[in-house]
Design a protein that fits this description.
alpha/beta; TIM Barrel; 2 domains; 8-stranded parallel barrel; 3-stranded antiparallel beta sheet; 19 strands; 20% strand; globular; disordered N terminus
């Protein structure tokens, strides 16, 4: 549960007016009225279906911790003004409707207030569902069932909750409907229940557009799984494959059905990893495997004709059998280099948005996190992934006009390069120092170095 202490500490980031707004949250929570502190000034932000590079808040974020640390983290986020995404239940938010018509938006209000205070383009993921919508008891929250989908007879109730959320935060204009089709897998038919998901999606879409025609809505938020090339074609899609493997047909089927039967959409959204669904293999290696992100982006745009959002992307294969590996097994230099190449693939293929899943923890060790934990006295300081994300968002927003670059590296080594007229990004994909010539400059690149060159 979230403590009142955390709310008082967060007031240091918002200032006096923010503190007053937070104190008033409990008065608005019972009715589902407006919340989340002060609204941004009118005209401050032009809504765009292509908001670019941002991140998703998870269980721990910059709204709780020591006063000094939350202030530093808030200043960091204010300097970047990236899109920020928050789920309406779970991942840092409490059950928003514990009983029919009884609302508790306190935790979600805090996250929205954080997004507003730091100048973000706010995004909300409409997931998960209160327990009474999925066979549970009213006024009780069983967090072990967070990933259960609402029962079909409650699809309308969930859509009405989405409408209440949109009405409560009128400045939020970007909405993702559900997350990874959680709870929609049909074990009997060995496929996703894309019919049920699309029915839910259409009800939510209609409700959000009823609240404001300017609301931007996307789905189906399916995981774009893939497997290695194989002789056995079962579950492999014949329409998308590459050196990295072959798209899972079940994922492709979701996209096709949703696209054919949706009542409308402003963008298509997926997530995925550069490693295989089974065995977690990066083929042919961790850098080359990221070409999958570009291939899937182009395929989605050709199928749907819509801007493509990546709600999550992953490059570090998980550890096996509790052994060191995955996020905890790579050096930070290695991690940043692979992420940089993945972002290059997404940008070059025309992705409209990509949200980094920020794995914040409360302790000292936090691989891949954007800032040092705000629960530590020296917390809130920028970490390497935040530097990469912020610089990339600044240099290569959606719509960037990329140009070819003359780039060579010493024999037996590889580098990756992306450039427009203002900046060049160079990544050494080797675990040793490499000498390269890029855009006429001779560079000595440290192992896994990510280097920016201003034009």
């Amino acid at each position: 549960m979230r403590s009142g202490t955390g709310r008082r500490l967060f007031a240091s980031l918002l200032g006096t007016c923010g503190a007053v707004a937070l104190a008033a949250l409990s008065l608005a929570a019972a009715s589902g009225g407006a919340g989340g502190g002060r609204l941004p000034k009118a005209g401050r932000r032009q809504e765009d279906v292509r908001p670019g590079w941002g991140f998703t808040h998870t269980q721990y974020s910059a709204d709780h911790g020591t006063p000094e640390a939350t202030y530093r983290a808030g200043a960091l986020l204010s300097a970047r003004s990236l899109p920020q995404n928050q789920h309406i239940m779970g991942w840092g938010a409490e059950n928003p409707e514990p009983a029919p018509g009884r609302y508790d938006f306190q935790a979600l209000d805090e996250r929205v207030a954080l997004m507003r205070a730091t100048g973000a383009t706010p995004v909300l993921t409409l997931c998960g569902a209160p327990d009474w919508m999925k066979g549970g008891r009213k006024r009780r929250t069983d967090w072990s069932r967070l990933e259960a989908a609402p029962d079909r007879r409650h699809y309308g109730d969930f859509a009405r909750l989405a409408g209440t959320v949109a009405r409560r935060y009128p400045d939020v204009k970007h909405f993702l409907v559900w997350n990874e089709l959680k709870g929609f897998y049909d074990e009997g038919r060995r496929r996703w229940d894309y019919e049920g998901y699309t029915e839910l999606y259409n009800l939510v879409h209609a409700e959000l557009k009823r609240q404001s025609p300017g609301n931007l809505v996307g789905g189906p938020y399916v995981v774009a799984d893939h497997d290695p090339p194989a002789v056995d074609r079962e579950d492999r899609s014949p329409e998308l494959r590459g050196p990295w493997g072959e798209l899972d047909q079940r994922s492709a089927d979701v996209v096709h059905y949703w696209n054919a039967h949706k009542s409308g959409a402003d963008f298509v959204v997926v997530d995925g990893s550069s490693y295989t669904r089974e065995g977690h293999r990066a083929i042919p290696d961790e850098f080359a495997a990221t070409e999958k992100f570009a291939d899937v982006t182009r395929w989605l745009r050709s199928v749907t004709g819509l801007p493509v959002w990546w709600a999550e992307w992953y490059v570090e294969p998980p550890a096996r059998d509790d052994r060191p590996g995955g996020r905890d097994g790579w050096s930070e230099q290695h991690r940043i280099a692979v992420h940089a190449v993945a972002m290059m693939r997404l940008a070059a293929s025309g992705a409209a948005a990509a949200l980094y899943w920020n794995p914040q923890r409360t302790g000292d060790d936090c691989p891949g996190c954007l800032w040092r934990s705000t629960h530590l006295p020296d917390g809130g300081r920028e970490l390497p992934m935040a530097r990469l994300l912020g610089r990339f968002a600044h240099e290569f927003p959606p719509g960037s006009a990329f140009r070819p670059v003359a780039a060579t590296a010493e024999q037996g080594t590889r580098i990756q390069v992306l450039a427009d007229d203002a900046a060049v990004l160079v990544v050494n994909t080797e675990s040793r120092r490499v000498t390269a010539r890029v855009d006429g400059q001779v560079l000595s690149l440290a192992p896994y170095e990510v280097r920016w060159i201003s034009c």
